[in-house]
Each structure stands twice: as C-alpha cells, then as structure tokens.
Specification:
By secondary structure, the chain is α/β, with parallel strands linked by helices. It is built from six helices and seven strands, in the order αβαβαββαβαβαβ. The longest helix has 14 residues. The chain is globular.
C-alpha cells in the first residue's frame, strides 16, 4: 500500500508544472451557458456589459434581442474585441448556440474572461416571449 502511495505521489509531482519564473499561472477561462431567464437576469443586473448577436447581418436585421450588437463575422468580432476591456461581460447568442459557442471560444482565445452564451439561442428567447427588436423598429 505504501509503495502504491509513493508511486502515485511521485507521478503527481512530475505531472505538476508550476509557472516558470516571471510567468503567472494561467487560470482556465470557462464559457458559461445560461438559460433564457438567467441570461436576461444576469445581463440586466450588469452595470456595464454587451449583448453580441453572432448571427448573419440578414438574421440580425430581421429580429434581434433589444440592444444587441451584430458580430456575425470573425472580422467584425475581432474589431469589436479590439475596443473592449477583456474584463467586460459579454452575453452572446445566435439561433441555437452553435455560432455563439464558436464566437465565445474565439473571444476566450483573445483573453476575454466573462463570457456567457444563451443556451437555447434566439429560438428559446422568442419562445419565452421576451422582448425583441424587429426590422426597422428600434425602441
């Protein structure tokens, strides 16, 4: 029993790699997936945050969550990212969650740390009867 413990302990020491001199340990940045209610409640409780629509311009123009910014292409997303503090909470959605998950992953690679994805996407938002803006109608 003691030998097994020593072998496991030695293995754990070998697999642990502390940060090199001058480097901080990197904390894993997670993307948080939220239900419609949690997405809306958390966003509304923020003092400073953005909602990003990861759908195409056409989809965005047709109908969107009120106040959302469209970043349907990687180029637009990168331009947006260049203007924001990496601590800014970003709430991201698309039709389901495929493109928003991809956009959130890209933003995570760019160093953003407060990323929230609408689990059921715009479909879930509309099904819940929550407010949307439609083509030509801005409130």
């Amino acid at each position: 029993m003691t030998i097994i413990f020593l072998v496991l302990h030695a293995f754990s020491l070998l697999s642990f790699r502390p940060a090199e001199a001058g480097q901080e340990a990197v904390q894993e940045i997670r993307i948080t997936y939220l239900s419609v209610d949690d997405f809306q409640n958390r966003f509304c409780s923020e003092v400073y945050a953005f909602i990003i629509d990861a759908r195409s311009k056409t989809e965005y123009r047709r109908v969107r969550i009120e106040g959302a910014l469209n970043a349907g292409s990687g180029k637009v997303l990168d331009q947006m990212a260049d203007t924001l503090d990496r601590e800014t909470p970003l709430y991201i959605y698309c039709t389901t969650k495929t493109r928003s998950s991809s956009a959130a992953g890209h933003l995570r690679e760019l160093g953003f740390v407060n990323l929230y994805v609408l689990e059921s996407g715009m479909r879930g938002w509309k099904t819940a009867g929550l407010p949307v803006e439609k083509r030509g109608k801005r409130k």
